[in-house]
Design goal:
3-stranded antiparallel sheet; 18 helices; about 400 residues; single chain; globular
Length: about 400
């Protein structure tokens, strides 16, 4: 089916792939690499997917050597085939890729749950032609130190490339913010966006970063690991970029309000019909606290110790303190200050980041093993290592 966009004829993605003689994955990569130009969907298009102008299809078909020339420009190779293409050993190819000399363009997860990176063959050939010293010469000391520290730039270079591609096609500041939010860790995103309506809107505008299948738990975990920023400097770079774009989006227009059914908190014995929690100020003697019930009356509540008066919208605030369970009271009685311990025993203290040990705090085996271990920080994210001619940055959008 053909549709006219601003006076020109456009084709759907599937038909455009058939016209160019490309498979679905090849056509998707060609669009990401801007080898095939696309336009936004028309006003009456319910699918919301971008379309390909018919003039773009005709231009590619008129190229000499079509479709082999187009396939050669989008051909991807793995580590083994890439090493053969560059004339080096697979081990040296892996070290160059980890050091950020060239970045992957896509990945997939194999049956063992491991990420398999794929590279553009044209980029590898160009790198081998102009970086002969890195290909056949000794490894530079800075690169050797980075590899010995365990750094791996493959994931961050792929994320940088993919974010740049999606930002270019994004329409509006909210769409750009959703692109950057897609690579931020969940805890960082929750700290930056407090409004539930904004979180829902960003989740709705979130684009698809990769087409790797996530049909199992192991595969889904591997895909999330590849799509999420990890190192401190990379997270801070995306965090700063996201804060700037979010401020611009808020000035552009506020996020759509949530429907009343989604905005109202669940009914509870201690909340009123308007979604408020009203509590009386406690006295120094710790008298019983009373809460406003949904029926308008006041029902006595068990003494929960000192609390503060909470009024207004309680969304995004921590849940009020609950009555300790019998197990928690038993642990507190055994490990709290002034507790008596049997002869020959002593409580286990927790390592809390160099601070004093607290009674009753216990660490898991993994946390005890990793306590005191320093986190390795990588070089600046705004540019690739000095031995690389490529730069990796997020395109500015004001």
């Amino acid at each position: 089916m053909t549709v006219r966009y601003e006076g020109s004829e456009t084709l759907a993605m599937g038909r455009a792939a058939r016209e160019l003689g490309l498979k679905t994955g090849e056509f998707e990569l060609a669009v990401q690499l801007d080898e095939v130009g696309t336009v936004p969907p028309g006003p009456g298009d319910a699918s919301g997917r971008r379309r390909v102008p018919a003039a773009e299809i005709a231009r590619l078909q008129e190229e000499r050597g079509f479709p082999d020339t187009l396939r050669e420009r989008i051909r991807v190779v793995g580590a083994t085939e890439g090493a053969e293409l560059m004339g080096i050993a697979p081990g040296r190819f892996l070290r160059l890729a980890r050091a950020g000399c060239f970045g992957p363009v896509r990945f997939y997860v194999n049956r063992y749950g491991a990420i398999v990176w794929q590279y553009l063959a044209a980029e590898l050939s160009a790198f081998a032609g102009k970086e002969c010293s890195l290909i056949h010469g000794p490894t530079p000391p800075p690169m050797r130190a980075l590899l010995c520290s365990g750094q791996d730039w493959r994931g961050r270079l792929w994320r940088s490339r993919r974010v740049a591609q999606l930002v270019t096609d994004a329409d509006g500041s909210w769409a750009v913010s959703a692109v950057i939010a897609a690579v931020l860790p969940p805890e960082e995103l929750a700290a930056l966006v407090r409004d539930p309506a904004e979180r829902v809107w960003l989740r709705k505008l979130r684009p698809c970063l990769s087409s790797a299948g996530a049909n199992t738990t192991r595969t889904r975990a591997a895909v999330e690991r590849a799509e999420t920023a990890e190192e401190f400097d990379e997270v801070m770079w995306y965090r700063i970029s996201f804060s700037r774009q979010l401020d611009a989006a808020r000035r552009e227009h506020p996020a759509p309000a949530l429907p009343p059914s989604a905005a109202a908190p669940p009914s509870d014995a201690g909340t009123g019909s308007g979604g408020e929690v009203q509590a009386d100020e406690p006295t120094e003697t710790g008298e019983a606290v009373e809460a406003q019930g949904s029926g308008g009356g006041r029902a006595p509540v068990e003494d929960r110790g000192p609390t503060s008066k909470i009024k207004g919208d309680v969304r995004g605030l921590p849940a009020p303190a609950t009555v300790p369970s019998p197990r928690a009271r038993l642990i507190r009685a055994r490990t709290g200050p002034g507790a008596q311990f049997p002869a020959g025993t002593r409580p286990r203290a927790a390592v809390t980041g160099g601070g004093p040990a607290r009674h009753g705090a216990f660490l898991t085996r993994r946390a005890r093993a990793s306590s005191g271990r320093a986190r390795i920080q990588s070089p600046s994210f705004r540019k690739s290592p000095s031995w690389t001619t490529e730069t990796s940055s997020l395109p500015s959008r004001s």
